[in-house]
Design a protein that fits this description.
two-stranded antiparallel ribbon; single chain; rod-shaped; 9 strands; 2 domains
Length: 233
């Protein structure tokens, strides 16, 4: 080794030090957002259709009540307006399905599951009340329009209930069938002894990063003085 203090000399360790930082946990991507969006659009349309048919039955019932009949006329459960308040839950389920595509988070997916269950229950309520209304509309000659609307509401309720079950099933599968992704970065640390111009030896560390695919980050060399400085040789 040269005795010239102005000349830098290096002694490289034979064995590199491998450092692995803690793995970074990333939220898994949620699936079926487009499916939930399509189901949501369909449910919103069916909810609006339920509102329209229920309002039509109320209008017909209001007109019929202005007439005087010499016989008994029954309009079933028309005055309960079941198509409106049951349809409100279907509308909420549809809106959450649309939101699942705009903001695909676990919170939104859980809300889709919960509202899907609630909406399916109220669709069964709407179906039962519509069937009772169809059976109790009398006489048929005077209540035919109301009877047909209640029958259509029953069909809508049965179809929407099945749709709600499919909706919550996709929402559950979209978040439960995913594996968490763990990305880590390996750091290779090369240590070497460097002789400074004044003759003092220091320990220098050079780190090479192996980042995740598509990214790269280089770390600067770190120079760490030894506990006891050595002299020039």
């Amino acid at each position: 080794m040269s005795n010239n203090p102005n000349e830098k000399q290096q002694q490289t360790n034979a064995t590199p030090v491998v450092v692995a930082p803690p793995p970074v946990h990333q939220e898994p991507e949620l699936k079926y957002a487009n499916v939930l969006y399509g189901l949501g659009i369909t449910e919103v349309f069916l909810a609006i259709l339920s509102f329209a048919m229920c309002i039509a039955t109320l209008v017909i019932a209001g007109v019929m009540k202005t007439y005087t009949y010499t016989y008994f006329v029954s309009l079933g459960l028309t005055d309960t307006a079941q198509g409106i308040w049951c349809g409100a839950f279907l509308l909420a389920s549809g809106i959450l399905g649309i939101r699942a595509k705009q903001n695909p988070t676990r919170c939104i997916y859980n809300a889709n599951i919960a509202m899907g269950c609630v909406s399916a229950f109220f669709m069964s309520v709407l179906f039962v009340m519509s069937v009772l209304s169809v059976m109790s509309c009398r006489p048929v000659s005077d209540t035919l329009a109301t009877l047909i609307l209640h029958a259509l509401l029953g069909l809508l309720a049965s179809f929407s209930g099945i749709l709600n079950i499919i909706h919550l099933a996709f929402a559950a599968a979209g978040q439960c069938c995913q594996n968490s992704q763990v990305n880590g970065t390996m750091v290779y640390q090369q240590q070497q002894m460097v002789q400074l111009p004044n003759g003092q030896f220091v320990l220098a560390s050079t780190q090479n990063y192996q980042p995740a695919p598509g990214t790269y980050q280089a770390a600067p060399a770190q120079v760490t003085p030894p506990p006891q400085a050595g002299g020039a040789v």
